[in-house]
Design goal:
Strands 2-3-7-8 form a four-stranded antiparallel beta sheet, with no helix packed on it. It has a four-stranded parallel beta sheet with strand order 6-5-9-10. The protein has a domain of 164 residues: 3-Layer(aba) Sandwich (Uracil-DNA Glycosylase, subunit E). Helix 1 packs across helix 3 and helix 3 runs antiparallel to helix 4. By secondary structure, it is of the alpha/beta class. The mean pLDDT is 93. The chain contains nine helices and ten strands. Helices cover 47% and strands 14% of the residues.
Length: 253
């Protein structure tokens, strides 16, 4: 387990205070106390759920950046854990479990991974096991580690493009591959949606994350992505074949 204790400790007092106030709205969380950086109309805020890294993962699932719902879940979990007196390591781990790719998005993703044959490839009963009994196989993260908002709305990876923001580029092109390269073995990297996939492919092209096999064509599982069913239907056979090839590669090691 890798945990950024220093940064979590820095925000722990403010996080703990939230458990008393009970406030977890945008007006409570998108505040100067949790503000990390600004770049034009972009604002980045701290979230505690990406402080935990599982270096032994076999599957890494990455969105583009946490949305407010994930951020809210993370703050609620961290505040309660800190109030209960848990260690920073426990806070980091349990907050990741509670908030990482949470909500209906997680269920949509699990259903698609099941249809793609991921359980057979990793010898688990169901893809949901990655979020439960087989959690040691999984690491969830984001290309841009902390929540980013464009004009106070969730950043989607397109407005502006990552390449046009020094802030976003720094996180996507340095911090993200640095994190992925902490994995100690070959991994199946599942980027969620076109923006995350594009960033991953560019990094591979530039010689980063060489031990990662990118699953290409996986739709973003958000309910806001109305095209995900069509995209998944069109790409399902390719996704199944990619996962089977990765499973075959693992068996040869």
């Amino acid at each position: 387990m890798i945990c950024n204790r220093e940064r979590l400790a820095h925000f722990s007092r403010q996080l703990k205070a939230l458990s008393s106030s009970g406030g977890f709205t945008k007006s409570d969380l998108l505040t100067p106390e949790f503000h990390l950086a600004k770049d034009g109309d972009l604002d980045m805020y701290y979230s505690p759920h990406n402080e935990y890294i599982n270096p032994h993962a076999a599957v890494v699932i990455s969105g583009i950046t946490p949305g407010f719902f994930q951020m809210q879940r993370a703050y609620k979990a961290a505040a309660q854990l800190l109030k209960n007196g848990e260690s920073l390591e426990v806070v980091a781990y349990e907050t990741k479990k509670a908030a990482g790719l949470s909500g209906s998005m997680r269920q949509h993703m699990i259903e698609m991974l099941n249809e793609c044959g991921l359980p057979a490839a990793f010898r688990v009963e169901n893809s949901s096991c990655l979020f439960g009994a087989k959690r040691e196989l999984l690491h969830t993260t984001s290309v841009i580690k902390h929540p980013v908002f464009y004009q106070q709305k969730n950043y989607t990876g397109h407005q502006p493009p990552i390449s046009r923001s020094a802030l976003l580029s720094r996180y996507a092109l340095k911090y993200f591959p640095d994190e992925i390269e902490m994995m100690k073995k070959d991994i199946l990297l599942v980027p969620l949606g076109k923006a995350a996939e594009s960033a991953c492919r560019m990094l591979k092209k530039n010689g980063r994350m060489n031990h990662a096999v990118i699953l290409e064509g996986f739709p973003h599982p958000s309910g806001a992505n109305g095209h995900r069913f069509k995209q998944f239907h069109e790409n399902k056979q390719s996704l199944r074949e990619q996962i089977q090839r990765f499973a075959g590669f693992l068996q040869k090691l």
